[in-house]
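Summary of Year 1 activities. Much of the first year was spent building the evaluation harness for sequence design. The harness presents a backbone, in tokenized form, and records the residue chosen at every position. We chose the following record to illustrate the format because it has been used consistently in internal testing since the harness was completed.
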């Protein structure tokens, strides 16, 4: 998967999430779980979902608890080992996946990567993207990496990532403290906006993240047989 494709979908979903009622908001990782279950014809063990997302058991328990509380997934005991908890998508969950996929697809503007993707195909991308977890700060890093030839401010990052301004500001501050980005005022500028750039350490981290994203494998569309 290309980095700009990853950022395009993440930006679109971030915008959708902002416009969703608070009680119905899902993290991107929860959305990915729903997409995974929607394309699976049988219940999936919670431990397998955790392995798919590279998440610790408490984290996965929190995510599936949230999805279950919204009525989007059903959970039960495994047929072979009753100690295993298995998850399957509910009818409400399938409907919500269709809604979120359509709304996300509609937020990808003309000229952006994957602008012509269908809602069904977007689900396949989101499922694949669920294997790589990125915090808001890490999204800042890879966004800077993807556009190193352009000046970047908080306002520009907000637009590129579809995140709220406070989220971006706090993420940048955290990255500055870690020595991953630097802030400077452009020479001769009279504005209060600061340019944000990757440090060498930040570039190394961003490249490592980009390499993980490039390793995401998105399943091809099945070939249709000719009549």
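For this record, the design step produced the sequence shown next.
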């Amino acid at each position: 998967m290309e980095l700009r494709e990853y950022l395009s979908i993440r930006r679109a979903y971030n915008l959708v999430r902002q416009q969703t009622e608070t009680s119905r908001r899902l993290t991107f990782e929860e959305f990915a779980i729903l997409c995974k279950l929607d394309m699976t014809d049988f219940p999936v063990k919670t431990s397998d979902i955790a392995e798919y997302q590279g998440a610790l058991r408490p984290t996965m328990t929190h995510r599936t608890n949230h999805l279950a509380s919204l009525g989007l997934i059903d959970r039960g005991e495994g047929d072979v080992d009753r100690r295993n908890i298995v998850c399957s998508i509910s009818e409400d969950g399938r409907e919500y996946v269709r809604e979120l996929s359509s709304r996300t697809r509609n937020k990808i503007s003309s000229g952006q990567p994957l602008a012509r993707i269908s809602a069904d195909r977007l689900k396949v991308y989101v499922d694949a993207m669920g294997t790589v977890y990125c915090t808001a700060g890490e999204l800042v890093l890879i966004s800077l990496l993807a556009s190193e030839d352009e000046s970047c401010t908080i306002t520009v990052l907000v637009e590129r990532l579809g995140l709220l301004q406070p989220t971006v500001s706090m993420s940048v501050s955290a990255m500055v403290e870690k020595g991953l980005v630097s802030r400077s005022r452009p020479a001769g500028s009279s504005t209060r906006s600061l340019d944000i750039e990757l440090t060498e350490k930040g570039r190394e981290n961003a490249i490592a993240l980009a390499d993980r994203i490039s390793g995401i494998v998105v399943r091809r569309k099945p070939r249709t047989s000719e009549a």
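The chain has two domains: 3-129, 136-213. Quantitative recovery figures across the full test set are reported in Table 2.
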